[in-house]
Specification:
Elements: H1 3-13, H2 18-29, E1 34-37, H3 40-45, E2 53-56, E3 69-74, E4 88-90, E5 95-99, H4 121-134, E6 138-139, E7 144-147, E8 153-155, E9 159-168, E10 179-181, E11 188-190, H5 194-201, E12 220-231, E13 244-252, E14 258-259, E15 271-276, E16 282-291, E17 308-310, E18 315-324, E19 339-353, E20 357-358, E21 375-389, E22 396-397
Parallel strand pairs: 1-2, 6-9, 7-9, 8-10, 9-16, 10-17, 16-18, 17-19, 18-19, 19-21
Antiparallel strand pairs: 2-3, 3-5, 4-5, 11-15, 12-13, 12-15, 13-14, 20-22
């Protein structure tokens, strides 16, 4: 390569490594290019050819493309169903920019703007869906994002949020949480044969610690539930007297070792569901969450979700701060908890500042009629709360 041309490349590219410069020159001689674009808009207007590689710069500003790399392909070679304006961007002249699999995922790659106007939840939803499909971690260490009506953002891989700030508009709260940390495997009913189930139930008794019949279900969380055989009921006129289903939650170790005390014997009407637990921890590290404190516009259940549902065993959430926007907590309807744990084993919150919700405000006209919570859950085994802070006054609950 000529010395003058080399210096020209280095001057334009700044920190671009020499190997990349030489590769770029070599590719140009073959008719292809390695091109750097400031953002997605510039990519769409660039003079490109099939086989080119394009990298967006990722300046951490709106529409910066998140530092992603694309290969330019002919649209004739791409399934039209894949073209989605994110992973397959339709260009002019019959070309498509195809996102190359990155090592980590961030939200700008998928169109998050962080301008306070757009609903960034849509891009965040798409980013996690892509990360889940490709088993990639999400690293988004800075920026502010506004989540409006997007709910049910599924998380199946580890996430680093660092100093990222999420503004959550609670007008759009429903019974579906904003984020859902979930397992890749679904629960499955077991011991469906009545004879096998009856034989097992002879061993399911208070005090049992090793149950050989459960040995095949090592590293699984077992949920026993009998809607017919019911126990106890909550007193009071507003509660019915039908009682609660008899239930038990057990984690199975080697040779049928049972973790979790067995409190009840069960009848053959019990349904037993096995939930595989992961062999690694999913970690959710960092992040700040500012809640708007508004009433949900649509009330699809008594309690609404406003944050993170965890139904994946072996999950650790750490170093987070949860608070309210400057408008404060104005809602008149109860929350089930920013963090909510359900059918999970070995889960942890560590170093989290959590906000309790307002209930008994001054006077009686602004009181929330039911209990409203900062944290909630049911059917959880081995939950650890470490370095948790949630300070309030007499108006707060949960």
């Amino acid at each position: 390569m000529e010395r003058r041309k080399l210096l020209s490349y280095l001057g334009l590219s700044g920190a671009l490594p020499l190997s990349a410069v030489i590769a770029s020159e070599a590719n140009k001689k073959q008719g292809n290019q390695i091109i750097h674009c400031a953002n997605i808009s510039e990519l769409k207007s660039a003079d490109l050819s099939q086989g080119d590689l394009v990298k967006t710069m990722g300046y951490h500003v709106a529409d910066d493309g998140g530092g992603a790399t694309y290969r330019i392909e002919s649209s004739a070679m791409v399934d039209s169903k894949q073209i989605d304006a994110v992973t397959h961007i339709l260009l002019s002249n019959g070309l498509v920019a195809v996102l190359l699999k990155p090592k980590v995922v961030n939200y700008q790659m998928f169109g998050a703007r962080g301008d306070g106007i757009a609903d960034d939840g849509k891009a965040i939803f798409t980013a996690h869906a892509y990360a889940n499909r490709n088993n990639l971690p999400v690293h988004n260490l800075s920026g502010e994002y506004w989540i409006k009506d997007t709910r049910g953002i599924e998380i199946e891989t580890s996430v680093s949020w660092g100093n990222t700030v999420f503004h959550i508009d609670e007008k759009f709260n429903t019974s579906v949480s904003v984020f859902h940390i979930k397992s890749k495997a679904d629960g499955q009913e077991i011991f469906t044969d009545k004879t096998e189930r009856s034989t097992l139930l002879e061993e399911i008794r208070p005090g049992a610690q090793i149950i050989p019949a459960l040995a095949p279900y090592v590293n699984q969380l077992l949920h026993f539930k009998d809607d017919i055989d019911r126990i106890g009921f909550r007193a009071g006129e507003r509660y019915n007297s039908t009682g609660r289903p008899k239930e038990e939650l057990l984690y199975i170790e080697l040779e049928g070792k049972v973790l979790g005390d067995i409190a009840w014997p069960f009848k053959p009407t019990v349904v037993i569901t096995a939930y595989p637990t992961e062999m690694s921890y999913l970690t959710l590290d960092g992040g700040t969450f500012l809640l708007s404190g508004d009433d949900p516009a649509v009330q699809d259940s008594l309690y609404s979700q406003c944050g993170i549902l965890v139904s994946r065993s072996r999950t650790k959430i750490m170093n987070q701060w949860v608070g309210l926007e400057t408008s404060g907590d104005q809602t008149m309807r109860p929350r089930s908890g920013f963090y909510y744990f359900q059918l999970a084993y070995d889960v942890e919150l560590d170093n989290v500042r959590l906000v309790p919700r307002e209930k008994d405000r001054v006077g009686v006209d602004r009181d929330v009629p039911e209990g409203t919570y900062g944290i909630g859950g049911n059917r959880v085994l081995n939950l650890r709360l470490k370095n948790m802070t949630a300070e309030g006054t007499a108006i707060h609950w949960g």
